[in-house]
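Lecture 7 notes: from sequence to structure.

We start with a single chain of 423 residues. Read the sequence below before looking at the structure.
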Amino acid sequence: MASVAPDAASLAAARKLAGSWSHAGSSGLALWGLCQGSGSKPYQAVVDLRGPAYKCSCPSRKFPCKHALGLLVEWSEGRVPSADEPADFAAEWLSRREEKTENTVESGDEAPKKSPDPATAQKRADRVASGLVELDLWITDQIRSGLAAMDTSWAGFDAVAARMVDAQAPGIAGTLRALAGIVASTENWPEKVLDELARLHLLVAAHQKLSELPEDLAHSVKAHVGYPVSTESVMESIPVKENWMILGSGITEEKRLFTRTVWMLGRNSNRWAMLLDFSHGSPNFATETPPVGFLLNADVHFYPGAAALRARMGATHGEPEPFTTMPFGSIDAALQQFTDALAADPWLRSWPAVISSVVPSFVDGSWFLVDESGTALRAEGDSDLLWKLLGISGGYPVTVCGTWNALALTPISVFTGGQVIVL
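Now the structure, written as tokens:
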């Protein structure tokens, strides 16, 4: 519950609702119940665990509200009995959710995209190649003139990025726009910008020899440039069937485009998978994933690439169940996994990792994760998030899940006391 609660106060209020419930039940992945509040009419709460998604008749602006969280508390503690059919108020909402999903697929919003015909694909490739030639000339000019003479304003980078959008290379456009932020926020920005320009030059060179590259590496090059990959082709790939542990979930927003990222680790294979979903206007995602802290036996289809990470959920086998133990992960193993992934795909920026038995430490203005041998790994991220991590640990060893970018680890979640807490 802590992973989905909007704040600690909501979770505390939810736990106080024990004894206020009536007509609670569960069927499949749906929970429902009536919670008596201060008024004469009880609040109707429903939870769809596949999202998870929540519905409550209370006027609270928090999402999920304390009643939905309270229902999850009742369920997790075994006080919600099984039922053959949902209550009427729950069935109506669940039915509308099913209809919305079906209508979305029928309208084509989430329908698998078919691969373009060869002529269209070649036309796009030629357009990208032409744009990358211009980009390489621009990079060469910046190096020859010196970074001190470079137009490092947002408008300067955006002008080059816009040309890449026209050339149908949105991945490169995003990298270029990010350079303005690097200049504005980093003291040693020339070193960082030079590193990014070198990375882009390597990508241009790889694209020019695309037909000579191994198939997996060619797919990685296309992905970093921004070539689209059809959902249909991904779902036709051979799936990886595993017991997937859901270790983290987060939603970001940029210009009203909401992106949900879910990190999963195969319990047996120790293989990572990252699910990405997008929604315009509001964080209402058409696809649903199990909640953090649950184990799901499922088929996962990976996008092609030399270091495949992004994936889509396929068929599931059984219902998600909470897990209370984690495989051990050392600092050395995490660094080796990143090294192997980077060797396969040199444009990777980060790779997920699980590090066990580390103590969060704040030393001389910097954050570290220190293991039992005294080995320290630098940590970075939002200050409140890192202090929260320290507070959860209480100065004792915990297991941290995060992403490593060759310089520092950004925590995503922490596993302690048999549960996963999203940071």
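Residues 8-107 form one domain. Keep this in mind for problem set 3.
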